[in-house]
Amino acid sequence: AASPGSSTSLSGLLPPYDELYYRGVRAYFTEDWEKAAEFIELSIATREALLRTRRKCHDECSSAGDEIVPSLEKDKNTLWDLWTLDWIQRRAECIKFCLGRAVTPAGQLPVSLDIEYEFGTRNAYNFLQIAYYKLRKPRKAAAAAYTFFKANPSHLEMRNNIEKYRRMAGVTEDAFEDRERELEKHWEFYDAALTAESSSDWPRAVNSWKECVNETLKQTDECRAQCVVTSQRLPEEIDGMEGVYEKAAALSLSLLACKQACVSLVSMRPGRVSPQEDFLPMQLEHLHIAQYKEGDLKGAVQTLRSLLLFYPKDPESLSNLQIYTESLEGDTESQTTGPSLEISNYVSRALEEKKLLYFGVENLDFKFFDPDLWTPEDIVPESLRESWRAEREQLNAKLKEGEKLLEVDDSGFYAGGPVPLVGVTITMDDETLNGTNRVVLDGVLSQSECDTVIQLANIAASVGDGYKGRRSPHTPHEKFEGLTILKAFKLAQDGLLNQSDAKLLHEAGERARILIHSYFRSHSALYFFYTHLVCRTAIPGHQEGRLDLSHPVHVDNCILEPETRQCWREAPAFTHRDLSAVLYLNDDFEGGELFFTDRDAKTVTARVKPSCGRLVGFTSGPVNPHGVTAVTAGRRCALALWFTTEKLHRDMEREEAEAMFGLEGKEEMEEKEESDSKHAPARSGRSQPSKVRSKERERVSSGKDEL
Ligand SMILES: O=C(O)CCC(=O)C(=O)O
Ligand SMILES: [Fe+2]
Asked: Which of 170, 259, 551, 570 is the most exposed place for a label (fewest CB within 10 A)?
């Protein structure tokens, strides 16, 4: 049992942090905010303490059993296997004793992948910010929101929440503290180094790059140490293996693979889905150039020699080395400076590990993903190189056959259904839009209806409340204003907007829903997921030489990774969006074209020019990456709509608005009890079915997070 206020149990030992987390989440869903905040904080603190303890035990035991080593080296040692076992046992005993002094037996068990995911995505802080908000502790809520947002930078609702906290009394700028900052120090140095470089401040760039390298090595070390003291997930096939040696090899290989994976973990910025390639060599590259510019030629030679350990034959590095040594003429000591000891240890250790791992891959069916690009070819077994080559060729052939092949839309929607509203025509279809499941319809609103809706936007903006203009989340060159149906209805209730005009906003969305439902032959009912009226206004004087977009290329329901053409359907993306639509209201502005691209986010496949009453619709998934070009003059207004086939994820705000004015939503309200029971609190324990939890996860990280 955990005692509140500290992260230790009654016995003084660390309890399992996942249990504390589940308690917190359960309290959250029963709206016991006090307990929710208490237990989630406790779980965060306990996890941190556990990581620290493990690191301490790793260090304390790093030489345990070393007294055996001389015996291992004795001539004609026929009992070397027993000595090795002795050495392993002494280390095991040391770590076991060390952990046992600080952690309860349950706390030492591995946690589930779901819990790792929760902490990896910082979802704990999402629960916390809401709990603190409800408890009227805005400073703590602000810190939690900011910490979550750091790792989920495209989470627009959290961005909105942060803006709201900023405006709250008692919340000063220093409240926005990243509680996980300690883990990101290398990124701070990295950013500082780039900034220094861009202003040619070489001494500062050198310092920052050095710090960045040191911190990267330190974080890598920390990560590798955790591999040793945490239980390793063994390859599944190991159950079928009989021999002790095979099992021992599988375990050792898993440990090495875990250590190697640290390269990826450390080079992954919070909030990114892929690591920065060649992170360490790239830092060395920047560092030697900065050292050269600063005039520290000796330092530059040392760094360049360190870099050459990664890429010994790189022609550019070799010619730079020649330039440096020539400039150092006469100074033989500087000319012959070797690489830094730390880097050369790093590289030789990595090479030895990779050799063993590739041996395992080739001969023991071990699966290993090499995180490095610099791995020399001769370390990779010939057979593997061959199969890689074949795979690459296959992929190239497929790409040549036409990218279209890859662009199969498995959403279950199928464009080409009827358009059931009089006066609405199909202007562009899949063929003219050069893609899959896209459409442009015209005549959805009349000119006077467009004017009325735009007028709503004007009034809402002028009265301020509910329609706060702020810089666009996507570009600093535009102002971004948004109005939801509920906010419009509330303004109408207060007499600030005309009721029938507000109802037109609602009605416009309904028309779009009917059209999209029919045209895409939706196999089930279609619910609103989220709707807002959005105006993007060019900020005068901020337009010269603009290269950015009004809305960067994205996919509406997954996180697009253009380099790999993958799209990750996971938080923070709004994964429950199935169909997207934008109903345009005007054309008296410059720029602001909607465009579709290929998965590379670069190749433009179609363009749509907004105009009054024009509705563009498309499936929200990876076949439809899209963006909006810069609005360089005037104001572009549109009603953006997303739909879902999952009733559970429908827009409750819209229903609240409908209830206010007695508007019948197309679907009757679900019984409260029923919808609540779908979010039944998680059972405690480590072996929960993941379904239950993934719903919870969606609930806090879906479109409903806005305060
Ligand atoms: O306004 C538009 O044309 C598109 C906006 C969009 O893609 C979005 O909000 O996700
Ligand atoms: Fe979009």
From this structure: 170
3-state class (DSSP) for residue 549:
strand
Of all helices (H) and strands (E), which one includes residue 382?
A: helix 382-400
Size (the chain), residues: 707
478 Cβ below 6 A of ligand 1: no
Is residue 645 within 8 Å of 522, Cβ to Cβ?
A: yes
Q: CA-to-CA distance for 608 and 438, rounded, in angstroms? A: 11
598 C-beta closer than 6 A to ligand 1? no
Answer positive or negative: Cα dihedral of 183, 184, 186, 189: negative
Distance CA 629, CA 378 (A): 47
Q: Determine the residue type at 110.
A: P
Q: Is 474 in the pocket of ligand 1 (CB under 6 A)?
A: no
Instruction: Give all domains of the chain, ordered by start, each with its CATH number.
Output: 17-120 (no CATH), 186-377 (no CATH), 425-667 (2.60.120.620)
Q: With b meaning 16 or more CB within 10 Å and e meaning fewer, what string describes 618-642?
A: bbbbbbbbbbbbbbbeebbbbbbbb
The interface pTM score, or ipTM, of the predicted complex is 0.98
Q: What is the pLDDT of residue 460?
A: 82
**Which segments of 282-386 are extended strands (E)?**
none
Express each pLDDT in 352-365 by its tens digit. Answer: 999 999 999 989 88
Q: Is the pTM of this model over 0.80?
A: no
- Is the distance from the beta carbon of residue 626 to the nearest atom of ligand 1 less than 6 Å? yes
Q: What are phi and psi of 589, to 5 degrees?
A: -155, 170
Looking at residues 262-287, what average pLDDT do you find?
89
- Closest by alpha carbon to 550, among 509, 589, 586, 583? 589
- One-letter amino acid for residue 632 of the chain: T
Q: Work out the mean pLDDT of the chain and round it to a whole number.
A: 86
473 to 63, 217, 673: CA distances (angstroms): 52, 34, 37
- Which ligand gives the minimal distance to the CA of 616? 1
H or E element that contains 82:
helix 80-102
Neighbours of ion ligand 2 (CB under 5 A): 556
Q: Which two tokens stand for residue 237?
A: 């096939």
Give the separation between CA 115 and CA 544, rounded to whole angstroms: 48
Does residue 1 have a pLDDT over 60? no
pLDDT in tens, 35-93: 999 999 999 999 999 999 999 999 999 999 999 888 877 767 788 889 889 999 999 99
Nearest CA to ligand 1 atom 10: 556
Rounded CA-CA distance 431/606 in Å is 10
Q: What is the 3-state secondary structure (H, E, C) of 329-344?
A: CCCHHHHCCCCCHHHH
Question: How open is the CA angle 168-171-173, to the nearest 5 degrees?
Answer: 125
